[in-house]
Amino acid sequence: MADKVLSANRSQLGHSFLNAMWIAGFLAAIQIVAVATAVIKRSPMPEQPVVATPATNVTIPDDFDPSPPLVPEGTPEVPTDIPAESPQIDPQPTAPVTDSKVNRMPAPDLNEITDPVGDVNDSLISILIESGMEDREHGDLEGALSAFLDAEKNLPDHPRVLSEIAGTYGEMGKINEATEYWTRVAEMGEIVAGPFYQIATKVLNGEDPSIPEVEIGKYLKIGKLNLKRQPVSSDGEWVTLTIPIVGKKGESISGKEMDLRVYFYDLINGVTPGQTTATISYDFPSKPYNWAENRTEEIEVIYHQPVFTVEQKQNLGERVYFGYVIELYYRNQLQDSVVSSDELRSLRFPVIEPVEEPISPQGPDTSLFPKNR
User: Based on the structure, what is the number of domains in the chain?
Assistant: First the structure.
């Protein structure tokens, strides 16, 4: 009898023990979750800074074959129309890309146009245009566009205003809007829009509007120059003049038949301009010069004036860079010339006044009108 009672008590004690252990484990789990939640809320993990990994320079071998790899015979085709078995995720809206160099159309420099069709007689509109140009130069394209659109409200059919808007839209990468405004300028015609019509038609035809047209009967023309002048240092004075040379469209041009003459001038003792004593060198960044791939080839001319000794200063004077004269020849015929200042123009190409011979008042040589002896 005692054994039966003891056995029953043991069974009940075992079940009670298991139940107690389950309850204790459950309470412990709840406490752990509560503690973890409190820790996360009170002390969040610090964010790690993202460090950009520098790109690796990859050298493409000479025998690189860009063609697709051959597929061995017997390779089973992989179907491409099988839908992906992945959960559907709502796409996030993305901002339009406006910084792509491929989709940008640089705004032409309209400030150099001196044709009267570009004049704006309203002083307030002129201020808006100048403000827009300044904003665009400093990278504030939104501010520039706002100023030009305000000008359009007052001058809705002005070729200069419409061209500024078109150029700004192009800089922003909004090609459709830029094309719309360039089309409006082109539809005005050359008589109304003048040089703005020519720029618009070039842009719409995919040409660079900054490239000037070569004159009839010539093959080459000097483009927009770029001058970089470094401050005078212990190494002397350095000036780099980049000369774009535009070839006539549709012509076969050889660089061997071209002759480029560049004359640098110094300002001597701060008063008199004179031909330079600097060392002149050349660099040819776009060779070969055949105008086959591009209508423009560039030549860099480097001016270096070393620091003078005391004796050189006495003999040659104090000298600093003053300007240049450029003459471009092709097949021994002058194609174009550029002079940096009117003072150098008169120095390089002096005007020779014709000498007038005195006319003596004498009549016809006849017997009725004998000459005075």
Answer: 2
